[in-house]
Amino acid sequence: MYLKIIACNVFFRELSYCAAQSPHTIDLDFFELGEHVHCDKLHKTIQSRIDQAEQAEKPYDAILLGFGLCGNAAKGLHAAKTRLIIPRAHDCCTILLGDKARFKKHFQDNPSTPFSSVGYMERGEYFVRQDDGQIMYGDAYAELVKQYGEDDAKYIWDSMHPKMEGMEDRAVFIDIPEIHFPEKIDAFKQKAEAEGKKFVLLQGSLNIIRNLVNGNWPDADFLTVEPGQQITAVYDWECVLSHS
């Protein structure tokens, strides 16, 4: 098959690794992690890239989306003449863990638990999931530091993102064996401990990403959106995404 992948660059290493081993011909198209800050803008960015992909001289057999619902950014995405394939995932955490069941096991009690990976450390450095679905990342914090200095920036950031009652005081690094960089793990651990959080290391998996690029799209793990249909949100632990 001839496939187009539109993905967040937090998966640059993982997708490049798996695409290199895929039996299919794949074109990769990455958008910046920072675009998640404004989900409506991210939605428009992705839709425009889908539209551009459909104008390619040689038609794609499918357009693969390398992200999840991501604060509703995926809601409403559609293609006129090409299948869209998207993982049934709330956000990148499920994809990094490689399994919805593992995401539910480790995060259902505290879905706002901060997490990171090699890609997040490289592309944003700081990542925290907020209850309202918004995502803040390293560039935003770095901009505060630039304007106000480290101490004042931390005070402003903490004031903007107060700790929610009952939120587990831990920070999780998802380590994928094939994309293993100990120095990234150590840097995250130091930052987590400096912020008074318990460092937790979880082993991730390329299972979802590998199946995505290999054309293995079981309905339990991936939503197939036929031409003319659009993605809708379900907001549960299993289905996550549907189409209309």
Which features would summarize this protein structure in a list?
244 residues, alpha/beta, five-stranded mixed beta sheet, three-stranded parallel beta sheet, 12 strands
State the end-to-end CA separation. Answer: 26 Å
Number of DSSP strands? 12
Total domains, how many? 2
Low-confidence stretches: 126-139
Give Rg in angstroms: 18 Å
Beta-strand proportion: 15-25%
Could you report the average pLDDT, rounded to the nearest whole number? 84
Strand order of the largest sheet: 2-1-3-4-10
Order of helices and strands: EHEHEEHHEHEEHHEHEHEEE
Structural class: alpha/beta
**Total helix count?**
9
Q: How would you briefly describe this protein structure?
A:
Strands 2-1-3-4-10 form a 5-stranded mixed sheet, sandwiched between helices. Strands 5-8-9 form a 3-stranded parallel sheet.
List the helices and strands and how they pair.
Blueprint: E1 2-8, H1 12-21, E2 25-31, H2 39-53, E3 62-66, E4 83-87, H3 92-97, H4 100-107, E5 115-116, H5 118-123, E6 127-129, E7 135-137, H6 138-148, H7 150-160, E8 170-175, H8 182-194, E9 198-203, H9 207-214, E10 222-225, E11 231-233, E12 241-243
Parallel strand pairs: 1-2, 1-3, 3-4, 5-8, 8-9
Antiparallel strand pairs: 4-10, 6-7, 11-12
Helix pairs in contact: 1-9, 6-7
